[in-house]
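re: ur question from yesterday

yeah so i grabbed the chain u mentioned. its 374 aa long if i counted rite. heres the sequnce exactly as i have it in my notes:
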Amino acid sequence: MPAGPERRPIASMDEVLKSTPLFMQSLGDIGQDNDTIDALQALLYDGTPEETALNFKEQGNEAFQAGKKTYKSAIEYYSKGIAAKCSDAELNSVLYANRAAVNLELQNYRKVLNDCGEAIKYNPKNVKAFYRSTKALLSLDRIVEAKDACRMGLELDAKNAPLLDLKKKIEARQDAIEKLKQAALERERLMIAKETALKNAIMSRGVINLSTLETTKADYENTLKLTHKAFISSNAPTLDETTNQVSYPVMFLYPEHTLSDLISSFNETNTFMDHLCEMFSPENRPPWDVQGNYIPEKLEVYFETRPDLDAAAKGVIYKESVHGKRKLMKVDPDSALEDVVGSGDFRLVDGVANFFVLSGASAAFAKQFRRSYR
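ran it thru and got these structure tokens back, copy pasting raw so excuse formatting
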């Protein structure tokens, strides 16, 4: 057994300082076995509730003035002062208002409002409580309440500079919010006007748009059902207000290869061949067309009728024996898009025009595909 006293591990300097009352940062630094602190803590409560509350208020003020690092301690001290339940209403009001000041710095605005409310209950003339509640309400954009709190504070002290400054800030913020509101209303008005103009333009062309989501008899009778998806998504019909021309999102489907292309803006005056010549030119030959069958002059364009969606739009259950089966309708590649989408048989589906593209060079597949619709 070694002689002499047992050597204890050397604590870090930080730990030593934290255990020394002079260097403690908060009440949380107090250890359970610190006799010195226990004695000091006992002294804090050695007196009347009023003396105890006042003592904690002063310590809270010191911690608050020391800076952000000791804000937590300041809140703890003010809370202990409140917990003393002294009979001095003005002191209680100050404790609540001071705790609100700390929480205001920490942006705990709900706590600020709660404490200011308590402070005013104890002392209805606590101008600082009105100031801090006003500032918290302004930070929360609760303008009407902020104006009211500011008004009540100024009724107590009409020349209070901080409150007068806040009054100007509230008015400026109110003006800014009103401008934002008016700008939002104007954007909404323009959007509605734009959508209405598009609906009217499409309806005047006899185009029927059906939805795979919610379709009703009323939608069918109106000959138009532009869904939320069709209007809001980037792939939606658009109206050029200068030329009064509509452009549609067009999907070219290649069933032979189970692939597709989306033309996001196909002007109604363009022909199918305009786009096919560009998409399938020798320079733009798609990598999946290994055999080179998809050349413009050999391409065939079709669309299918949708009696199933028509039935759903009328609010009835689709029956092939009653409503007929889907049909494949051939399109002249040299025709303009407007001539096809406005025909009686064509339907936009969720705002998109869908077409099948086959190659005459793949005769066997094209024949089989067409036969599937008979």
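noticed a couple things. The longest helix spans residues 161-204. also Residues 251 and 312 are 23 Å apart (CA to CA).
anyway ttyl
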